[in-house]
Design brief:
Blueprint (H helix, E strand, L loop, with lengths): L1 H16 L1 H24 L12 H9 L11
Length: 74
């Protein structure tokens, strides 16, 4: 969506113009705010959620917590 593209472009500009400020002061609060908004949207608390790099990482993190027994199927 256009709004997502525009937001990505804005973050790219911030990182390019003031990388240390962006990394040290802006990104973490922005991610925390997004996490809290997502938590409200899905009906949970932010402490139950985490942002990860991609879907493969997320699936591996979940799969690592499941103890499979002989004969189980995924």
């Amino acid at each position: 969506p256009k709004v997502v593209h525009e937001a990505r472009e804005e973050w790219s500009r911030r990182l390019a113009s003031q990388p240390m400020r962006a990394y040290l002061r802006e990104i973490e609060p922005a991610l925390q705010s997004a996490l809290e908004r997502l938590a409200r949207f899905v009906g949970t608390s932010a402490s139950n959620l985490a942002f990860v790099d991609n879907a493969t990482f997320a699936m591996n993190a979940v799969a690592a917590t499941i103890r499979l027994q002989p004969g189980d199927e995924v």
